[in-house]
UniProtKB/TrEMBL annotation:
Record-linked Pfam families: YCII
Signal peptide: none
Family: Belongs to the YciI family.
Annotated ranges, domain YCII-related: 1-90
Protein name per its UniProtKB record: YciI family protein
InterPro entries according to UniProt: Dimeric_a/b-barrel, YCII
Organism, as annotated: Corynebacterium phoceense
Amino acid sequence: MKYFAFIYDYNPNDPRLADVRPKHRDFINDLKAQGHILGSGPFTDSKGGALIVTQYEDENTTVAQAIELMDGDPFHTEGIVTARAVREWNPVINSFED
């Protein structure tokens, strides 16, 4: 498996969040159904933002391919995300279960 961590920054007070969030969650749920989401959720410190960890069976998946997939996220396409960092991640100790 290959993993990538996406760290989103966004304004938690952006009035568009409530309208875009359902589309974002549908997008993430679709990727989860395809086996591409290990975990996803907002940070809870009132600063906004979220962490999304994607996964791929193909060990040759590149960061560019992971970004291409996540470029379809409505949070990204509709300008909710103000900054996005992407890093390959190696879960040495993995406690995620379906």
